[in-house]
Amino acid sequence: MASADIIFYRYERSPYARRVEWYLALRGIPYRECLQPLVMPRPDLARLGIAYRRIPVLAIGRDVYLDTRLQLRKLEELDDTAAPKLGADTPEAMALERLLSLLTTDGGTTFSGMTSVLPTDMPLLQDEAFLRDRADFLGFELRPGTMRQARPEALREMAGVFALLETTLLADGRDWVLGTARAGLADIEAIWRLHWIANIPGALPERFFSAAVYPKVYAWMGRFDEAVAAARAAQQQKSRVVSGDQAARAILSSALHDEGLLDVDAEDHTVAAEGLARGDLVTVWPTDTGASGRDRGRLVAMNKDEVVFETEAEEDGGSGGNRTVRVHAPRHGFKVKKGDVGALLT
Q1: Closest alpha carbon to 20 in 44, 62, 52, 56
Q2: Are 328 and 258 in contact (CB under 8 A)?
Q3: Measured between alpha carbons, how far is 255 from 331 in angstroms, rounded to an integer?
Q4: Helix 215-234 and helix 15-27, axial crossing angle in degrees, nearest 10
Q5: What is the DSSP string of 249-278?
Q6: What is the DSSP letter of 241?
Q7: How far apart are CA 147 and CA 197, in angstroms?
Q8: Does this model's pTM top 0.90?
Q9: CB under 8 Å to 119, separation ≥6 — which residues?
Q10: What is the pLDDT along the chain (346 residues), one digit of tens a residue?
Q11: Buried-most residue among 114, 166, 222, 322 (CB within 10 A)?
């Protein structure tokens, strides 16, 4: 699949979207982006039959991928790009890359817990529409009192991640966490949360979080910014913004990208427990944040790594008849149930 067939749905300042943006930049992969509103609804995704409420969403051809962990894995499989792949190439390094992903995405203070360290006087936190949207997204309300109560523990967890990198992987003065010659996927996995919060004025107290306290971590973050900036400057083709209509037409008129995953693994525990078979109606949703965005479609494939289902677009958008897209979600962090499951079941 030509990398030019990539469409990236994101909104400004999304820390998760930056994970994928960094990857695309470092490999020189051209793409089109469809900018989304900060809060729901997002009709550009709804027109593809997608209820998922997290950002970003990545389309490669007529296959749509949810969750940045799966998106990065699928981008890593692309071969026709200007730069080599960014992933680790030995079993030990691959294990460390995966553990860094788990640490920064699932371990310690989760991303939803990190909201406790945001300055309570941020303009967004005065916006009632934003607060209502994020209460639905997170499952709890962002209020100054509760944020201040949770802040000390969240800072302690953040300090643990900073200290771990300072005293282990970066302790010998290496440029990149796996000792590679250039920034890699492991650096993206390790840096995204720290980079996001360190660049929000007032979020981290300078007495405990600064280049004076963690010189190797802050120097690494600086090198990473320079590497991404250099990669973007060298790109011959930059991202191009398209409208929701243009994005839908492009996706629906494209061929399927991911033809390799077509089987439903009968030995899978959930497949067996739910009695699932190809063509069954399934409901799929994330189990941590954004659980209210539940997608329903016909099961195409399912194994230990991902579930694939077809959704129906609102219209073919001049695509020549295609009305369906294939949506891919990782198994980790997502629930799959047979039938049309309502919002009360978690």
Answers
A1: 56
A2: yes
A3: 24
A4: 60
A5: HHHHTSPPS--S---B-TTSHHHHHHT--T
A6: E
A7: 15
A8: yes
A9: 125, 200, 201, 202, 203
A10: 444 489 999 999 899 999 999 999 999 999 999 999 999 999 999 999 999 999 999 999 999 999 999 999 999 999 876 678 999 999 999 999 999 999 988 865 556 678 889 999 999 999 999 999 999 998 889 899 999 999 999 999 999 999 999 999 999 999 999 999 999 999 999 999 999 999 999 999 999 999 999 999 999 999 999 999 999 998 765 668 999 999 999 999 999 998 877 899 999 999 999 999 999 999 999 999 999 999 999 999 999 999 999 999 987 766 667 899 999 999 999 999 999 998 544 4
A11: 114
Type of residue found at 118: L
Cβ proximity of 125 and 118 under 8 Å: yes
* DSSP helix, strand, coil percent of the chain (3-state; round to 5): 40, 15, 45
Total residues belonging to the chain: 346
Close Cβ partners of 260 (under 8 Å, ≥ 6 residues apart)? none
Element at 308 (helix H, strand E):
strand 306-312
